[in-house]
Each structure stands twice: as C-alpha cells, then as structure tokens.
Amino acid sequence: MKVREVKTANPVCCVATDTAQRAAQILRNQHVGALPVIRGHSSRQLIGMITDRDLCCSVVADGLDPKSTAIEKYISTDIVACRDDDSLDKCEQAMQEHQIRRVPVIDEEGRCIGIVSQADLALKGPPEKLSRTVAEISKPGPERPAVAA
What we know:
CBS-domain, 5 helices, globular, about 20% strand
C-alpha cells in the first residue's frame, strides 16, 4: 500500500507569522492536533510542524499573549516527511522511529500535499499494523519521561 492511498490530501496549513491564537483556532476548527507550517500559501513549501502541545507547553505555559505571539519560534523544523509514492510501511516505520503521530507528505519541490496521521492509519491502513505503530510511538524515551499516575 502506498502513502497516496492513506493520506489526507491538501491539509490546512499555517505560516510562521501566524499567531498562536490563529494556529490554535485552526487546530480546533479542523479537529486536528498538528499543522504543517509552510513558507507561504501560494508556494506551500513545508518549513515545519506545530502541535497543540507546542502551543500549550510554550506559549500558554510561559504566559505569552497568544493574540500577538507568532508561532515561528515554536515550530518543529526537524521535519520527518514522506512522499506520495513511498510505501505505507516506510511511513509507519518513520512514525515509530521518531515517535511522531503525524507525517507530512511532500512533493519533489518540498510542497506540502498531504499528511498521514494515526487516524488515517486506523481508518485506511491494514489493522494488524496499527497497534504496533501506536505502541512504538507511545513508548517513553530519553526525552519523553513516563507520566506517573
């Protein structure tokens, strides 16, 4: 199975100059936990990702004003991406290895043309692989301590 068969095409994106409030509104309105960040809406050149957790743990936790704080300092620029013609196995392996729940899909010019999320895997991918991917993504790592109950 190929990434193109599972991805959500043309995801809503934001730009680095968007405010934290604008990014949070898009996340809420689209019912998603992460957004690709692009250089501009016409180019759709992927430059990073921003998550609801990034906004909460950086902007909100530091007491910054979400109405005036641009997201550019808070985006993850170490991007793990895949291509339309990549195998779904390759995409899932990247998710597992990097412990990420969403992988942007880019074209040959680096434009964001889609995204593959855990939900996409659950809805469209082979069910026998999903539990392994979720388990690997959720493992505590050196930078991700286990939460005590």
